[in-house]
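Pasting as-is:
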Amino acid sequence: MAKPKVLVVEDDETIAAGLRSAMEDECEIFVTGRNPATVAQGQEWEPRVTLLDLESPSRPNPEDGLRVLQELRQSGYRGKVIVYTSGTERSLAVQAVRYGAIDVLSKPLDVTLLKAIVRRAARIADLEQEAQAGMTDGGHEEFKGMLGTSSTIHRIFDAIRKVSTNDAPILITGESGTGKELTAKAIHERGLRKQAPFIPINCGAIPESLLESELFGYERGAFTGAVGQKKGKVEFAQGGTLFLDEVGELPYALQVKLLRFLQDRTFERVGGHQRIEMNVRIIAATNVNLQEAIEKGTFREDLYYRLGVVHINLPPLRERGEDVSLMATAFLRQAAAHYGKPVHGFTREALEAMRAYTWPGNVRELSNRVGRAVVMAEGTHVRPADLDIPHQIARQDEGSISLKINQQRIETDLIMKAFTLSQGNLSRAAHELGISRSTLYRRLRQYGMDRTLDARRTLGVSQRTWMSDH
C-alpha cells in the first residue's frame, strides 16, 4: 500500500526536520514554508493530510496561519488539515475548526499521538475520496447506490454476484432502513433480466382490499368502478423482476394466490377466468421475523420456503464499522449539492459521535440526519449539534453489569426503534412500547431524546421523498 502524502507547512527548519524524521517511515513527507505559493503547492502535491503551524519565528501572529488555512479550504483542497500552536486560547482552536481543521494540537508535539491522528485523518480522507468517486459515477462500480468497505457488506456484495446469474427466488431480510430495495435492484441490474423492467410493490403500503388487484390486475366489471381491464404489477414485470417489499405484511388469503403463482408461474386477474402465464423473477423483502410469523399463524410456511430459496440477511449499520463515515460523506455531498450549501465535511467530534451512535434507523436514519445537519450547519463542517444525535450510554460502558446503565441503554434502543417503526409518531410509538404517551414523553426528557422527536417531525415530510431510496 502506498504511503499517504503529508504536507508540512512549517517555517521553523528544526521543527520541519524533526517532523520529517519522525514520520517518513510511514508517510511521504513534503515540506514548505508559509508563503504565497503554499496553497498552489498543496493543490499540486494533493496531500491526504496537511500539518500547519499557526505560528512561526518570523510571523508569530496565529492569524497568519489561520489565513493560510482559510485559503487552502477556499481553493477546494479536500485533504484533512491538522494545525498546531504554542498558544492555549480556546478561541483560536474554535476559529481553526471553523475554517476546516479537524484537530488542534499544542506544542511541543507528542509524536506518538501525532502519528496516530495523521493515520486516522489519512484513512478518513481516503474513504471520502472513494465516496466522492462513488457519487461521481453513480455509486459502487457494480452496485449502484451501495457503498461500503467493511467485511460484512462485502459478504453481501459476494452474495449479489452469485445470485445474479440465476433465477432462484430470493428473500432479503434485515432491519428497516438497511437497503433491501437497493440490494434487489443490484441483483436485477447484474442479471440476465437487466434490460427488462424492475417492478416494486410495497405490500404493506396498499390497503388489503386493493392489494390483489394492484398485484394481479382485474377484468372489467370485477367490482364497482372497474370500468375496464387493468394489468397488475406482475404483468408489467414480464421478462424482468417483481420486487415484493414488506412481504411479511401480505394478507393471509393473498399468500395462497402468490404461492400458486410461484409454483406454476400462472395467475388469473381479479374477476377473470383465463390463466395467464408469466416469466418473471421474484425477489421479496421484509423486516418482519417470518419464523415468528409462521409460529403465530400469520404467514404460510410453504410460501416462506418458496420465497427464500436464497436468503440474504442485510447487516444493521451498527455492525458495519467505518462504512458509517464513508456513507455519511456521500450523503453530505449529495445534501450539500441539493441544498446549495458550502459544507465540505465533518469535524472530528461529529465523526466520533456518529461512530458511537447505534443507528436504530440504519442507513435511512444516517441519510436523514446528515441531510438535517447540512441544513443546520453554520460553517464548512458539520458539528455534533448539527446531527442532533440523541444521548446514548458510551460504548465503553457496554461491559458494565450496572442495572442502571444497562436499563437506560435498553430503554433508549427500544424507544428509538419504536420511533423508527412509527415514523416519529408519539402515540403510535407509545402503543408499540406498551406504555402511555405521558410515560414515553417522560422517558424522552429523562434521556435527553425529546429534541429527536421534534427533529423527526420537522424532517419527516420534507426529506422523506429525497431519502426514500436509502
